[in-house]
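call fold(seq) -> tokens
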Amino acid sequence: MLKHFQVTLLAEKNRFQFIFFCTLLLGLAAHGYCYFNLLFSHDALHLVQDSNSAVAQIGLGRFLNPLYLQLRGSICSSSLIGILSLCYLTISIWLMIMLLDIKQKLLIFCACGILTANTAITFLNASYIGAADVYMLALLLSVAAAYIAAQYRYGFLCSPILLCMSLSLYQSYLQVTVFLCMLSIVKLLLENKPIKTTIFTAAKLLFALLSGLLLYKAVFQYTLILTGVDIMDSYNGLANVGQFENLAALCQLTKQTWLYPLQYYMTPQISNSQAIAVFNVILGVLLLLSLARILICRSSSPGKLLLLGCLIFLMPFGINVVYFIANGMEHALMIYSFFLVYLFLLYTLDVNISIPAKKQNQEQTNTPQVFSDIPRWIAVVCLICVIFHNINFSNQLYLKKDLEFQSTLSVMTRIVDRMEQTDGYILGQTPVILVGSLYNSPLSQERPGFEEITGLGCSQNFSTTYYLTYQWYFEQILAYPIQLLDPDEASAFLQYHAVQSIPVFPQKGCCALLDDVLVVKLSD
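ret:
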């Protein structure tokens, strides 16, 4: 298998170089602002991953995350993370292009654009830049698991290890592997491969998927025992995975899992979503037309058509299977697999180019292939419009994050000044609690013109979002010595009647000493 892969590397040199160039160019156009500016906010304010972070990651089932950070470094350096992310993404896109054997450079350019500049990566960079390269490595491993299982005779034996490693970094890219496996079977059916070959490949892929999940479960359980960490019971934890209330709830969840991707294409989480939805409808129609032309020209058997129809029907479920496993939990970082449907379209367009136009007497001719050229150009124009809009949205969102970082710096500096002016406050010794939040304070306002620039971790108007982010902001951004009480202790103070009577920042008296604790009230 290694020798065959070395031969593949030599043969794929030109295509890889083109993909690298396109991914680098489009990646920097879309995300360069984030990689080379200080946009730290939300979870990204935790600039240094410590032992508590490692425990949390293990509890979430991401037990390889701390090991990876030991190699990369625990400090969040956005420029390094950006370079690593684009490198991992380049290899991922290359493997996907090789898996589907897309040859036309214009279509490859569109694939690089869609898979590099999309909301899943944008929201990841905007609010979770410290983990961006970890997620992209998880994506690479998930893609490699599908590629090796589909392309090599005994690849299904190595693939579970790669899938296990991917899940131990970030679990949501499981559906990337699932969908790529489905595309591999569709490719065999469209190429009219023998049904035995198709079924054998499908069995190998299914074995790789199930083995990878079982291996991950076993290693995760062993890691919990070895480290003494408890599985985390949170919204993104694994404690409730696979636990369904009853049959009716299971049926409803199955329906929602299938419908959610279709709903997303109609209402994408991006500005000017109506225009993107129109493009998605056009591209969906072109996908069906391209598939129909391939099937008509290649005259597939009824059995293969039935199997192909079943696979296409199951695709919305396949690209969203984690939604089902996680009992309906979904957010923008989990939907990268949704953009692989565009890759499916590009594959069918590429196949149509290789199908010669035919006269009525079925003889091949060199006349222009109108029925493949026109849909291809319409699709390319629509995709370029979507890519440009995604790049535009990314830069607008990063600009918003930049402005919020500056606003937060201004406000937090003023808060520190008020704290130091409070009689009895001793720097670094007096315990401090923050009541309320900046995004609920009178100072919080939406910038005119930025109303549509919102999304996961990007709707609070300030870099600080929840209680721990204030601790990180004082420690990492301001480097200010402060004894900030933990959230549980702070919650106890909220019951005090005296706290409720304290005015809200920036009013006079917003900082007050109660029981030798400095209370800073940010909002009611």
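Residues 62 and 168 are 4 Å apart (CA to CA).
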